[in-house]
Amino acid sequence: LNKLVTKLTSLAAVTLFSLNLSAAPIEIKFSHVVADNTPKGQMAKKFKELVESRLPGKVEVKVFPNSQLFGDNKVLEAMLLGDVQLAAPSLSKFQKYTKSLQVFDLPFLFADMDAVERFQNGPEGQKLLTSLEKKGLVGLGYLHNGMKQLSSSQPLKVPADASGLKFRIMTSDVLAAQFEALDANPVKKPFSEVFTLLQTKAIDGQENTWSNIYSKKFFEVQEYITESNHGVLDYLVVTSKEFWMTLPDDIRPIIKESLAEAITFGNKIASDKAMSDKQAIIDSRRSKVLTLTDAERQQWVKAMKPVWAKFEDEIGKATIEAAEQSNK
Ligand code: LMR
């Protein structure tokens, strides 16, 4: 009987082993809204390449760019339902899940991307990564895009120039308040609709990074772009807690490390593109790039900065102060 049990046990082990070998790979669907030739598009591709070379046959990454799978208003709901495993929405698109990430939307808070980087790597920035956990989401890291510029059918040199105009914004109440402070009309719309809204003149303008204005051809349907650098557009790479926790223990760290490398790669592209895409827009002569004098810029700061006080309670004073400190 003993012999029989041993035989059966080893048979079972062999069966389990071969079952495991033939098990379907874990699928990671990575859904995003921008083009492939952007910091996020390139980061997603790099992540796929790294994960699939390190975990061959075990994990498969499918990248869906250009809102092909989910637009930015649906992706987080889809993630909680298990229909997508990875996304990197802009930090402005999380207000349904947490108020603290709104700090990134405060106008004229960060002097430049180095300040953003210092804040994200500091204790307050790292704490914000966990701000979605109660909602079932895990923040895996930040990814840069860059500073936002204002584009419009009208030349915007001083805040009064924006008065009465309609601007597309991401789903953020801070961004709404920012345009209301200019007596302009903010309209919350998904990224996938922006080009058509601009082309048909349903809206007058929008705010975005050089990379998004270039890769989505907004510059072809906007006569003016003001180099305002008035805010930041960065991303939070997220997954669902459920997916993350059920990953095998030998696989999760490899995915994490590949993601960190892909983010470093994407950040380098972000800083390169902030310059090269701006230059490509200038060279195209489709859109006139306006620069501000210090005095003009100060007028924008004065008009927009009162927004901070409105959101101080929701965001937390300590968080805003830490962000300000990162400018030094
Ligand atoms: C936008 O909606 O303008 C951006 O968040 C798009 C993106 O993901 O860069």
In short:
About 45% of the residues lie in helices and about 20% in strands. The chain has about 325 residues and is α/β, with parallel strands linked by helices.
Mean pLDDT: 95
Morphology:
elongated
Widest sheet, order of strands: 6-5-7-4-8-9
Can you summarize the main beta sheet? 6 strands, mixed
Measure the end-to-end span: 77 Å
Question: Looking at the chains present, what oligomeric state does this protein adopt?
Answer: single chain
Bound molecules: (2S)-2-hydroxybutanedioic acid
Low-confidence runs (pLDDT<50, min 5 residues)? none
Provide structural commentary.
By secondary structure, the protein is α/β, with parallel strands linked by helices. The chain contains 13 helices and nine strands. A six-stranded mixed β-sheet has the order 6-5-7-4-8-9, with helices on both faces. A three-stranded parallel β-sheet has the order 2-1-3. Helix 2 (39-54) runs antiparallel to helix 10 (252-284). It is elongated. Bound molecules: (2S)-2-hydroxybutanedioic acid (LMR). (2S)-2-hydroxybutanedioic acid binds at residues 33-34, 72, 90, 145, 170, 191, 208, 212.
